[in-house]
Write a structure and sequence with these properties.
There is one protein chain. By secondary structure, this protein is mostly helical. It has a domain at 23-161. 82% of the residues lie in helices and 2% in strands. The protein has helices at residues 2-18, 32-37, 40-77, 83-108, 113-140, 164-200, 202-252, 263-335, and strands at 27-30, 144-147. A two-stranded parallel sheet has the order 1-2. GO terms for molecular function: unfolded protein binding. One of its GO terms (biological process) is protein stabilization. Pfam families: OmpH. Belongs to the Skp family.
Length: 336
């Protein structure tokens, strides 16, 4: 490692000495660990892998506990077991221990599942970083770009030479562009599939044509209504403006030219007219409210009258029944 470091320093020194008459050597560095922590795709994949690793560790602990229980059971029962049973138990324990060791190597060994999957998720990001470094180096004319997290020892590195954030931005933008392209491609594929489906099914094509015609007709009706309403509004405004101009002309004894500079007067008259109209509307609202209250009072009185009438009829009926009962009783008494 020291030889590599000395070799790099020698190259840098050589370039510095040869570039004294020029602009100088431009050096930058990246921090791969920092970049990996800030790339969303890698973080998500690393989190999922960590969850798998935790599950594997739990499986190992379960196997260890099972082996420990078997050993403890053999220790407690050894005095009661025959030699053959003891050997059988010991063989079973050794088999489980070997199986556990194989499982540990399979999951966490140098070429285990964890190492392989970690390499599989880190390699695409490393490729993206390499491409981004190449692009930035060419665009900004860097002579050297080092990796701070590699085996190369960097005794000091000024923050202004760190281009890790630039790398993260380049990768993130590329992912967003790719995602947008995928969305557009998916939309295009869906549109093409729909067109193919319509082309293969004449009945569906006819139904789609009718739907399109109906939609176009509905849009035309809505547009015509909107235009008609706008035209009526313009006519109303012109009519009201003309009326105000005539009133103003009669009051001043002059004829108001539409092109004359009497707009402030017209605006004032228009405002007064609006106030009168608003007042009329308010009076109409009050009148309607009073009429509604009067009708409600009449209705309430009518209901009260009906209730009293019903109560009187019931009372009258009850008195009549009592009289008839008394007469009947008196008649029965007289007969006896």
């Amino acid at each position: 490692m020291k030889k590599i470091f000395l070799f790099v320093i020698t190259i840098v020194a050589t370039n510095l000495s040869s570039a004294q008459s020029k602009a100088g050597v431009k050096i930058g560095y990246i921090d791969m660990d920092y970049i990996l922590e800030n790339v969303p795709d890698y973080k998500e994949a690393a989190t999922q892998l960590e969850q798998k690793a935790q599950k594997w560790k739990q499986d190992i602990e379960v196997k260890k506990n099972d082996i420990s229980k078997l050993k403890e059971g053999l220790k407690n029962e050894k005095a009661l077991l025959t030699k053959e049973l003891i050997e059988e138990r010991e063989g079973e324990i050794k088999f489980l221990e070997a199986e556990l060791l194989d499982y540990q190597q399979k999951r966490f060994g140098p070429r285990g599942d964890l190492a392989i999957q970690k390499e599989s998720i880190i390699k695409p990001v490393q490729d993206q970083v390499f491409n981004a470094v190449q692009d930035i180096a060419e665009a900004k004319q860097y002579d050297f770009i080092f990796d701070k997290s590699s085996d190369l020892t960097m005794l000091f590195s000024a923050k202004r030479f760190d281009i890790s954030d630039q790398i993260v931005r380049v990768i993130t933008r590329a992912e967003k562009r790719e995602e947008l392209s995928n969305k557009k491609r998916k939309a295009l594929e869906e549109k093409q599939e729909k067109q193919d489906e319509i082309a293969d099914n004449p009945g569906l094509a006819e139904r789609q044509r009718l739907l399109d015609e109906k939609k176009a007709l509905r849009n035309k009706v809505i547009e015509d209504r909107r235009n008609s309403a706008a035209q009526k509004k313009r006519e109303y405004e012109e009519k009201r403006k003309k009326l105000l101009e005539e009133r103003a002309g009669k009051k001043t004894g002059t004829t108001i030219d539409s092109t004359s500079s009497k707009q402030p007067v017209i605006d004032t008259q228009l405002e007064n007219f609006n106030k009168v109209e608003n007042k009329k509307i308010a009076l109409d609202s009050i009148k309607k409210a009073r009429e509604a209250a009067r009708l409600k009072t009449i209705e309430d009185n009518k209901k009260a009258f009906e209730a009293r009438k019903k109560a009187l009829e019931e009372k009258k009926k009850k008195v009549q029944e009592e009289r008839e009962a008394a007469a009947k009783k008196a008649k029965e008494t007289k007969t006896n």
